[in-house]
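Let's do one together. I've listed all components of the complex below, 503 residues spread over two lines.
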Amino acid sequence: MREFRYERADDPAAAVALLAAEPSGAFLGGGTNLVDLMKLGVATPDVLVDVRTLTSAEVTDLPDGGLRIGAAVPNADLAADRRVRERFPVLAQALLAGASGQLRNRATTGGNLLQRTRCTYFTDVTRPCNKREPGSGCGALEGVHRNHAILGQTLDGPGACIATHPSDMAVALVALDAVVQVLGPEGERAVPIAELHRLPGDDPSRDTTLRHGELISAIELPPLPFAARSRYRKARDRASFAFALVSVAAAVDVADGVVRDVRLALGGVAHRPWRATTAEEALRGRPATEESFAAAADAELAAATPLRDNGFKVPLARNLVVRTLLEVAR
Amino acid sequence: MDTEITLRVDGAARSLTVDTRTTLLDALRERLRNTSPKKGCDHGQCGACTVLLDGRRVNSCLVLAVTVGDAEVITSDGLATDDRPHPLHDSFVEHDGFQCGYCTPGQVCSAAGVLAEARAGWPSHVTEDLTAEGVTLTDAEIRERMSGNLCRCAAYANIVPAVAAVAEKEGVR
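Okay, and this is what the predicted structure of the assembly comes out as:
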């Protein structure tokens, strides 16, 4: 691990000011991903600004029925929060499907959103990777890419990248239209979560639209009454403690057998948590039947560009979408 | 960069100077000679380094020692009181829940965390009803909750009843 200076601040604004003055510094939350990447030589910050206990560690009610989640809330606490379990079960399930008990105790909500891909070409500094070292190429394209993206990738040129975003939690938050509260050198701003994570485009080194020095302070969940019937399903290579091959977050509002409203997001398929807007549009006003669900999934996945070894993700995603929608529409 | 820290480990405060890169695991093992937590994968994947930090199980290999502050660190060694093993220690022995012993201290700390989390009513990935009050530590619940601890000595089969027996005594099963 490269040497670094360790800093603490008295409040979030001071932490932001500290980091803004350190071009190759980083915030340290729970460290469950960053410390690992530092050990691997993938992350090499000069300065760590510890923010783990700086932002709120509380989940609080919003007047409109939504929830405000402090960025320092541990993943374990968020999953156990009774309001989350009752109003937004998809979020509790996504959190519980991720990592292990030990990691969930240490990982924070803010840090979870900023965790980096587990693409093995990214985490192995001896391999080419445009995300870790822009311009070096993408080893996964012609290499081992069974776990990689099928949607929204950049397949050639200096931006080539087929990595997936690893968070389960973020997939549920995308389905719930969460809003990320950010504190930066120029003050506060609110970022709809759909605008937080990026597709690789021509610069896969940037996972998010945050600017250097910007700190996630909280995540707000707007009220969504029909999310009380929501569900997260995750397909992975073993029963527990593994990243998603494909995951689905779904909530459906059905009245008289017709889909009035629906929220659908996929994990493990793209560089960012994938909001399935095409499928959502195809479903609104349609009968809540297996046929409609399958047609909507097919419409969403029509844009998929699977590679040599990850084509199985297309039918896996389709089936997982259909099963999950059937379950929540029941 | 060297920093002075004080760690409270198994009931005793210990002051030491560490390089900021030192993990809690390395501080415990290499500096404080507490070899109870083991270094397995060193990447948070095997759980052999599990300790309780303010009562919560964490992977000590991913915690930088400088971040620990005055939190209380309990290793499997420190779970014993007055030279008496912890009920989980006894139960692991009774049920033959370990073989080489390398991953056992982490398994025991993790099991202590599992019991505390179940007493607090925390659900898991296999909990059917998220809105239910309380948790029953069925075998499936124990397996899921212990899944952050990998032991390739084939001890899993005996770890489940070892944890279950203590859960039963504590009324979370």
